[in-house]
Design goal:
single chain, 66 residues, mainly alpha, 2 helices, 71% helix, 0% strand
Length: 66
């Protein structure tokens, strides 16, 4: 099941859901890269967890046929 929240009232286009998931992965990866530049262990771990969760959501959306 995808963890991407969709706030639209009309049914979302499958490609819209996938695009949102890809954007979330990209944003989370950027956060991870920023945290890694000034490594504070807690910040890096938190950013890595966000990136993993976003990647899992993207994979779930793809599996669900989005």
């Amino acid at each position: 099941m995808s963890t991407i929240q969709v706030t639209q009232t009309a049914p979302a286009d499958d490609s819209t859901i996938l695009a949102a998931a890809r954007r979330a992965v990209s944003d989370a990866l950027f956060d991870l890269e920023q945290a890694w530049r000034n490594p504070r262990p807690d910040a890096v771990v938190a950013a890595a967890r966000r990136q993993l969760a976003a990647a899992e959501s993207w994979a779930d959306a793809r599996r669900e046929g989005a």
